[in-house]
Amino acid sequence: MDRSFLFTLFLLFSVVASTISADDDDLLIEQVVSSDGDDDLLPHAEHHFSSFKARFGKSYGSAEEHDYRFGVFKANLRRAKIHQKLDPSAEHGVTKFSDLTPAEFRRNFLGLKRLRLPADAQKAPILPTNDLPTDFDWRDHGAVTGVKDQGACGSCWAFSTTGALEGAHFLETGELVSLSEQQLVDCDHECDPEEYGACDSGCNGGLMTSAFEYTLKAGGLEREKDYPYTGTDRGTCKFDQDKIVASVANFSVVSIDEEQIAANLVKNGPLAIGINAVFMQTYIGKVSCPYICGRQLDHGVLLVGYGSAGYAPIRFKEKPFWIIKNSWGENWGENGYYKICRGRNVCGVDSMVSTVAALHTTSD
What we know:
Blueprint (H helix, E strand, L loop, with lengths): L2 H18 L17 H4 L3 H12 L6 H24 L3 E3 L9 H8 L26 E2 L18 H18 L7 H7 L20 H11 L2 E2 L21 E3 L1 E6 L4 H11 L2 E5 L7 E6 L10 E14 L4 E9 L11 E5 L11 E6 L6
Parallel strand pairs: 7-10
Antiparallel strand pairs: 1-7, 2-8, 3-4, 5-11, 6-8, 6-11, 8-9, 9-10
Helix pairs in contact: 1-4, 6-7, 6-8
Family: Belongs to the peptidase C1 family.
Keywords: Disulfide bond, Glycoprotein, Hydrolase, Protease, Signal, Thiol protease, Zymogen
GO molecular function, one term: cysteine-type peptidase activity
């Protein structure tokens, strides 16, 4: 076997091993990425931190807190370089989460409640796949609302749910209506009867299929403007059935097969999916296609499209990719969106996919 290939393989293994040998928390990251070594990068950390604070409006209550956050920031600088090596087709760097520890990030900005779908979940029918378009994006067809921001609340599952129903409602009625995540956060406590304690729990997480079940039972969701998002789960349920604008007809889970996922996306609208968000904390842009990524799902997002050719410079070939709408605001990723490569269930992206159909209701 070619020695240069073996040496390259050894270097890759060394990078992966050095990442995994750290604490599990260290697998989440984010920061400034440079081709220079750590010795050159860290002396500029104070400048990077000042720029970070100015860009994202960060301030701290005391000198001790400031110094602590600066320490976290420097640790994340090192981790971001590792992420860039493990995911060279994407760009990783400083994000608005760069002063958070991985544990803080997971606690406040993820929120997918469980790692698997209910055993009794209805399965989506198998669809034909021979005439699928090469590229497809529901944003081009008017089925996707603007990027929202869940804030420091583990309510990603609610945003994934509303996004899917917004798209389904558009397909059914021709109306694009922004729906209320806060209604789900405040009012949805749907549980899986087969798993004790597995309930939708506001800022402490939930599951999209459970939220669809709640919405079906409640009769539907209100508009965003009628039941606005607060980013907390300390309020009471204020649901007004007279203000329902979108209702669920049925929902189902989609096969892990990527052609079936694409077919359901094209036919039924944006899909609610789960993903492992380990590389998303540091993501800035381009197509993410990490060499190694866990499939333990911890974040709910919305699949809105796919592309046929996202260039991966290290692998010297075109990479098809999924287009994902996130709920961390437009000042994250590619204006609030994430691209991840297709083909091998990277980061568990194909493992938890659900589709919803809407009843024909119209808003006033």
